[in-house]
């Protein structure tokens, strides 16, 4: 070992010792703050968002903003776990993109509550069997996740956060030869997101939709254990590791910018963070110009609408509700004023929650 290399390693060792001491000091302060809380709420999405945004703004590199977020999410997650290890529900099995979104938002210092369906995620959090739930709500290429919107309409849970996750699909199999694949399993949306790639590379392979990408990988693993298979799954790299499968191809999605947005569900409101979003659902009178009249207060009060999605109300034939995302927190005067007028004009209005906008 050269003298120069040893010097650098000695400096790194000294810095690591400083980091360890400082992280433990931070943990002690976080624990003291936990003792001062009187509402029992441990997870503060607005506070964590403020911390990460500030650190990303102060970051001079060479670490990327994503790396800064990942590192400090891990620090905050483990400090939070000193008070309580939060139970986070998501669509399973392990290895789904929902689990990746939960990891991105909450870090490793949490208990995984694996659910068999999206509605089970809602029920689990509503029943107090998990502290929070993470559910997909829309994809950049496939649009809204209808079941999530329908469940939000009738649930008492509040949206307390959002996560955006770039989705890069892999083709996984126990086989080594791509041309041996005769069947492809995955979630219906993933099959659609890889439609053109499959047409080009595996035009003869049969495609079958299952409940999740990770479930597809799990099925391949189980089939191999019992009888061998020439099937493959479209899933994540993490699923390949979890189920001991080969990655035959990476980034097979047709749109390289493919991104899924997830919502974090909880039983409490969230204070303003400074960069927030508010989600609501409402319905309009059945008359000409009703929707335009309903949305007019947003424009007049300078509130930007970022999403408008219609869904059948499931109450009367051809009766619809509108899911809307707006910029700002419901405690802001302009948003508050707009929501008050919306309530007066709408036949139905429900604020689903105000929460920090997603962080890279």
Describe the structure concisely.
This protein has 360 residues and is of the alpha/beta class. It has helices at residues 3-36, 45-58, 65-81, 97-106, 118-126, 146-154, 188-193, 195-201, 213-226, 237-242, 290-300, 333-345, and strands at 86-91, 110-115, 132-139, 143-144, 158-166, 170-173, 183-187, 206-210, 231-235, 246-250, 259-266, 276-283, 305-312, 320-327, 348-356. It has four domains: 1-84, Up-down Bundle (Chorismate Mutase Domain, subunit A); 88-167 and 259-268, Periplasmic binding protein-like II (D-Maltodextrin-Binding Protein, domain 2, 3-Layer(aba) Sandwich), CATH 3.40.190.10; 170-257, Periplasmic binding protein-like II (D-Maltodextrin-Binding Protein, domain 2, 3-Layer(aba) Sandwich); 271-356, Alpha-Beta Plaits, CATH 3.30.70.
Key features of this structure:
alpha/beta; D-Maltodextrin-Binding Protein, domain 2; 5-stranded mixed beta sheet; 42% helix; EC 4.2.1.51; amino-acid biosynthesis
Low-confidence stretches: none
Quick one: biggest sheet?
6 strands, mixed
- Helix count equals 12
Strand content of the residues, in percent? 25-35%
Strand pairing plus helix content: what structural class?
alpha/beta
- Proportion in helices: 40-55%
CATH fold group of the largest domain: D-Maltodextrin-Binding Protein, domain 2
What is the CATH architecture assignment of the largest domain? Answer: 3-Layer(aba) Sandwich
Q: Could you spell the SSE succession in H and E letters? A: HHHEHEHEEHEEEHHEHEHEEEHEEHE
Shape annotation: globular
Spell out the CATH superfamily of the largest domain. Answer: Periplasmic binding protein-like II
* Tally of discrete structural domains: 4
Summed over residues and divided by their number, the pLDDT gives a mean of 90
Number of strands: 15
- Distance N to C terminus: 39 Å
CATH classification, class level of the largest domain: Alpha Beta
Radius of gyration: 23 Å
Domain Chorismate mutase: 1-87
Subcellular location: Cytoplasm
Coiled coil: 5-32
Domain ACT: 279-356
């Amino acid at each position: 070992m050269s003298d120069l290399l040893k010097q650098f390693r000695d400096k790194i060792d000294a810095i690591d010792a400083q980091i360890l001491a400082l992280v433990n000091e931070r943990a002690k302060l976080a624990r003291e703050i936990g003792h001062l809380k009187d509402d029992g709420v441990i997870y503060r999405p607005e506070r964590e968002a403020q911390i990460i945004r500030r650190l990303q703004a102060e970051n001079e590199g060479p670490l990327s903003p994503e790396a800064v977020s990942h590192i400090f999410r891990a620090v905050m997650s483990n400090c939070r776990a000193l008070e309580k290890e939060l139970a986070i529900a998501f669509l399973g099995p392990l290895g789904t993109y929902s689990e990746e979104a939960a990891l991105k938002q909450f870090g490793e210092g949490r208990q995984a509550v694996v659910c068999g369906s999206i509605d089970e995620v809602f029920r689990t959090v509503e029943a107090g069997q998990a502290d929070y739930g993470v559910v997909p709500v829309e994809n950049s290429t496939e649009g809204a996740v209808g079941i999530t919107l329908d469940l939000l309409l009738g649930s008492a849970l509040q949206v307390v956060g959002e996560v955006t996750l770039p989705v890069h699909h892999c083709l996984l199999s126990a086989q080594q030869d791509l041309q041996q694949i005769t069947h492809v399993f995955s979630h219906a949306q993933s099959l659609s997101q890889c439609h053109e790639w499959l047409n080009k590379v595996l035009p003869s392979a049969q495609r079958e939709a299952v409940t999740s990408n990770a479930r597809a990988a799990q099925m391949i693993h189980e089939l191999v254990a019992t009888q061998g298979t020439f099937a493959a799954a479209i899933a994540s790299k993490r699923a390949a590791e979890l189920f001991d499968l080969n990655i035959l191809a990476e980034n097979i999605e047709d749109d390289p910018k493919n991104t899924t947005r997830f919502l974090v569900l909880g039983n409490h409101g969230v204070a303003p963070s400074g960069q927030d979003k508010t989600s609501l659902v409402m319905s309009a009178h059945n008359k000409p110009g009703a929707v335009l009249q309903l949305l007019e207060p947003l424009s007049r009060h300078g509130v930007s609408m970022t999403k408008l999605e219609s869904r059948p109300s499931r109450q009367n034939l051809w009766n619809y509700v509108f899911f809307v995302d707006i910029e700002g927190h419901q405690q802001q005067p302009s948003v508050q004023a707009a929501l008050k007028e919306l309530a007066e004009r709408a036949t139905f209005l429900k604020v689903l929650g105000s929460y920090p906008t997603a962080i890279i």
